[in-house]
Design goal:
With about 100 residues, the chain is mainly alpha-helical. It is about 40% helix and about 10% strand. It has a two-stranded parallel ribbon with strand order 1-2. The two termini are about 10 Å apart.
């Protein structure tokens, strides 16, 4: 049976005048990624598919959570539609990918 795990980006950095898509993570965000990574490793096997928003903070969250996982065989797809997506859009996107 397939499992769906939704992860929102970690705490973003609001310092500076940066375009919303280019905002990174702050220290708390990076720390949260380490904690989430450890907890996910206890609960799930290696994920098969990653769908990620084009926002830098979402990509950094992915990279920092799954940094030490064996992801070489996983499919990673940056999905424009996930930026500011509603749950209906996410469901539509998933249906076309799975």
């Amino acid at each position: 049976m397939s499992k769906l795990i939704l992860i929102r980006h970690a705490k973003s950095d609001w310092s500076g005048n940066v375009n919303d898509l280019r905002r990174g993570l702050n220290r708390r965000g990076y720390n949260s990624c380490r904690v989430i990574s450890k907890e996910l490793k206890k609960r799930i096997d290696k994920p098969d598919l990653f769908l990620i928003s084009p926002a830098l903070r979402a990509q950094l969250t992915y990279e920092n959570i799954f940094l030490n996982w064996d992801n070489k065989d996983n499919l990673l797809s940056i999905e424009e539609d996930l930026y500011h997506a509603l749950i209906v859009q996410i469901k539509k996107n998933l249906t076309s990918k799975v």
